[in-house]
Structures are given as C-alpha cells and as structure tokens.
Design brief:
By secondary structure, this protein is α+β, with helices and mostly antiparallel strands. Helix content is about 30%, strand content about 30%. It is built from 15 helices and 27 strands. Strands 4, 5, 6, 7, 10, 11, 12, 13, 14 and 15 form a ten-stranded mixed β-sheet that branches. Helix 4 packs antiparallel against helix 7. It starts with a strand and ends in a 19-residue tail after the last strand.
Length: about 550
C-alpha cells in the first residue's frame, strides 16, 4: 500500500471541511490512517487507487464521499499548439509517450511535495519501479517547442538534475544516485531514450533523470509533462492521473500533438450496469435511482436507465474500473460498510478444519522444526521463472493471464520451487545458510492442488541434505514412498531422485543444476525438495491428473 502524507491545511482547503471529519471518515473510503502528526496525517491507500496518491486526488474523492460535491468531475482540455515527435528507433527500447501542458500552476511547498509524491507513487504503483512507466515534470518556460523523443547515442552530454556539470549518459548511470538505482532498465540497449526541445536542449533522460535546465520550483507557472514507457495504456493512465490532480489544484490542461494525435482528452468512459446484479452481489436492495446516487457520491456520472439499468460515466483517472463488479464495490463503499446489517446466518452448521488446511499446518510445523523459514511467494509469475530458468519444458497445462499488466505476471504458478529460488536471488546478500519453504495452491489444467517446496542454500548443500529433508517430511506425513532415478533437468544428473507414491511420481529432490543457479544469479549450491500434497493419505485429489514435471 502507498502511504501518502496529507497536510491538514491544504486538505481542508481542497475539501471544504475540517480535519476531524476527514480523519473520521477516511477509513470508510478504502484507506488506513497510519499516523496522525501535528500538521499532517500519513494515510495508506490501496494500490488499485493511484488516483488518490495525492492530496488533490484524495480531496476530490472525499468531497464526493462526504456529499460536498458529487457527480463526474469535468475537465476542459484545449490544444496547446505544441507537438512531440517520436523516433522510430525507440521501438523495442521505450516506444510509448504521453504528454500534456499544464498552465497557471501555483506551487507552494505543500503542493510541490504533493506533486513529487504523486510522481514517485505512480512510479511504484503504475510504473513498476519506472520500468513500465516513468514520469517527467518540466518548467515549460525554460524550453522551446516542438519537442522530440529520440534514441540518442550514449555519448550525449547534459547537466542532470541536482548536478552542476555535464555528464555523458553512461556517466549518469554510473555516478548519479538515480542513475545507479535505475540503470538496469536501459543498460542493455544500444541507444538511450532522450527528450529534447527545438534548440536541442535536454529535457530528460527517461526513465532515469530530468535535466537541470527544466527544474520545477515555486516560481514555475507552466509545466510540460512527459510520460514514457513500455505499455501504452499505463502511460496514458499516468498522464490522466497527474493532469486531473493538477486541475483539482486550479491549473488548466492543454493537449499536445504526438505524431499527429492530440493527447490527453480526459474524456470519461461510458458503460451500462445492472441494478439487480449489483444488489445480488452486495446484499442490499436498491432502486436504479438510489444506485445512481451512490455512484455519483463516488464521483461517477450516473443516470437511471429504466428499473434495472444505470448508465455510468467512469472518470478518466479511475484506471481500476475494469469490470462491472468494480463499480458495485464503489456502490457498497458509498452505501457505507458500517451500515450493512450484522446478523447470525439462518443456516446452522458446525465447522471443522478442511484437510487441506490441517495438512498445511502440519507441513509448516515439520519444516519449521527442521530449521526452515516459511515464505509466501506470489501466485502470479512468468513462464521465464517457472520453466525457462528451471530448464523445464513449458507446460500446456499452465493457466495464462489474458491481459497481464507486467511481463513478470503472465501465468498462475504451476510449481513453488522456482519461486523459492527467486526468493533466494532477492536475498542472496544475506548470511548463509538460507533454508526456505513454502506451501500453497498451484493450478494445472484449470484444477487447483497444493504443493510443498523447500530449498537450502550454503556452500555444503548437497544431495544428501535434500534426501534427508524429503525423508523426514514424508515420514512425518505418514507417506509410504519409494525413490527412483529422476530425469528432471532442473536438478543435477546423478544427484536427483523422484519420489514415487502408489505408482505415481509425487515429488522430486536433489541438487539444483548449475545452469539453474546461474539463471537465478545464485553463487552457492542449493539442495531442493518438492512434493505434491495430494500424495498425503486421505488428501482430496481433484480428478486423475499427473502430479509433477517429467512424468
């Protein structure tokens, strides 16, 4: 969650109400008050609401939620007469650009902090650490249109922000703090992205650093916004959020022509939703008029369309609205979670722990007793991690994400072991030995089962350690098993073995192959063990499906 500082005076000025009312109601809009300081509150907002990662965005949402100003915010966009060109050589490097001109800016210390905080929060939530989207904000009055987004030789020199001397772009990556932090995003390319003005002055070196020439100060009155990235939708989302936040602070927005197209428009998206479907989902009976009023309270445009439909206009900054149910969630928020009736279920039942969870608890106790630390890796991962880095064939049974937001989150995990190796990679700077385990759901062929994996990394990790760990766990779980030579390419030939239960392969253990270690940038041997938990006696098996790779 992103933690945003909300200065009381600025927030009160933008919302038109007092701080006590704001603090009392903030948690009900989908946030958590982390700290209350003398002059500001630190508030955590969910990553799905990047439009609230600024004082201006939070104030806009609060005005609606508190009934001060409801309905769709409307933003006027006029052409600026300025243009950008995009170099075709940027295809495959960082091809997408979004831009806008923001005029009549009135920046004081609080609003500068808000804008810069929004920029960095968007770099995290939308930009994936600047790799997907990076944002540049420039003093427009220091540069001259038209602007050009070019692929530049690495020897190009300019003065980066916070420096007083020229550096080449490679020197910036080596010497500037931002360069060292984000060099990995661009270092592999033969040319670097660069934004220049009509006089060839450097505005920015995205996604690394702006030029000192375009520094924004309290004297800045007009801003050129640039966003560059590898995902066109994410780039436009960042533009929309920043432009609308600045408009909330009193600025005017003008569009820029990019390769012949005016951007941004800040126009809402329209959709029609079912009142009955909403009521069935949230458990509250509402009329079309009541549902429309609640949506207007959440800053949507909404009009009843008969008894069972509502026409909704979704603001351009609400990038989280991807399904009708996202709108229904906002209806529930506006209705008030504190107003939902609390009662005893009319169905009487005596609960007991499911065997899946009792087995998982037993597994955790066993591995913790063996000195392993539990990890909880993400459910979404990539085929590169699951298969390519593991030297395993890509599985047709893997469940793919139709519209992934990142190259690192394209499939649902079919194994847990690769994710533990990824965890070792992230923590390779820490002391050894490192012994990790994880247990949880995997999905193959649209069927969910549970898997256990454990790894041990240190200079003496070997086959014997993997065998000992596997044997201890299998013994404690009362699994009768045998072993046979394995063909799993993720492990070293001659130092690997399959676990066979009731004639089927249920797991594998051994030493991780050097090529796999190299793929995860690991410098020490790793002993590994993985087990399909459907092999535990009495465990439910969802159909007759193969259990592991290499069968």
């Amino acid at each position: 969650m992103a933690v945003i500082g909300l200065p009381y005076k600025y927030l009160e000025r933008l919302t038109g109400t007092d701080k006590d009312t704001i603090i009392a109601r903030l948690p009900m809009i989908g946030s958590e008050v982390e700290r209350l300081e003398a002059d500001h509150a630190d508030v955590a907002f969910f990553p799905n609401r990047p439009d609230m990662f600024s004082v201006e965005g939070a104030a806009r949402a609060l005005r609606g939620f508190l009934g001060i100003e409801t309905g769709l915010p409307e933003y006027t966009v006029k052409p600026s007469g300025m243009s950008f060109t995009i170099d075709r050589k940027l295809t495959g490097i960082r091809p997408y650009l979004g831009s806008a001109v923001i005029r009549n800016v009135k920046l004081d210390a609080e609003s500068i902090l808000s804008v810069m905080g929004l920029q960095e929060a968007l770099h995290w939530a939308v930009g994936r650490g600047r790799s997907k989207v990076a944002i540049g904000i420039h003093d427009l009055d220091t540069i001259k249109p038209p602007f050009h987004y070019i692929a530049s030789p690495k020897t190009r020199k300019f003065v980066p922000l916070d420096f007083n001397r020229e550096l080449t772009m490679d020197e910036i990556l080596a010497q500037h703090p931002k360069g060292r932090d984000y060099a990995k995003i661009v270092q592999g390319f033969p040319l670097y992205p660069l934004i220049v003005d009509a006089d060839d002055h450097v505005c920015s070196f995205p996604p690394i650093i702006n030029g000192e020439r375009t520094r924004v100060t309290t004297s800045t009155r007009n801003i050129l916004l640039d966003t560059t990235g590898t995902d066109q939708r994410a780039v436009q989302v960042a533009v929309n959020i920043i432009c609308t936040a600045m408009a909330e602070a009193g600025s005017t927005i003008e569009s820029v022509e990019i390769n012949g197209k005016q951007t941004p428009t800040l126009a809402p998206e329209e959709r029609t939703v079912s009142v009955r479907e909403c009521c069935d989902l949230i458990g509250v009976d509402l009329s079309a008029a009541e549902m429309a009023a609640l949506l207007e309270q959440m800053r949507f445009g909404a009009q009843p369309d008969g008894n069972d439909k509502v026409r909704v206009k979704v603001p351009c900054y609400r990038a989280d609205i991807m399904h009708d149910w996202d709108l229904f969630e906002d209806v529930a928020i506006a209705y008030g979670y504190d107003k939902f009736a609390v009662g005893i279920s009319p169905t009487f039942a005596i609960g007991r722990s499911h065997v899946v969870y009792t087995t998982a608890a037993q597994v955790r106790a066993i591995l913790a007793g063996l000195g392993y630390l539990e990890m909880m890796p993400f459910t979404l991962t990539s085929e590169r991690v699951l298969f390519d880095s593991m030297r395993r064939e890509r599985s047709p049974r893997a469940l793919s994400v139709t519209h992934p937001i990142s190259e690192e989150h394209t499939v649902v995990r079919t194994d847990i072991l690769p994710l533990l190796l990824e965890m070792l990679q992230v923590n390779k700077h820490r002391e050894l030995p490192q012994r990790l385990f994880a247990t949880g759901d995997i999905i193959e062929s649209m069927k969910t089962t549970q898997r256990l994996a454990a790894v041990s990394m240190h200079p003496a990790a070997d086959f014997s350690e993997a065998y000992a760990c596997a044997d201890a766990v299998l013994h404690e779980l009362s699994i009768q098993y045998s072993v046979k030579e394995s063909a799993d390419k993720a492990l070293i030939d001659g130092r690997r073995a399959d676990i066979v239960v009731a004639g089927k392969k249920a797991g594998v253990f051994g030493e991780v192959h050097p090529a796999v270690l190299n793929a995860f940038e690991l410098e020490h041997p790793v002993a590994a063990f993985e087990l399909d938990l459907t092999a535990v006696p009495g465990y439910p098996v969802p159909g007759d499906i193969p259990l592991l790779h290499g069968r």
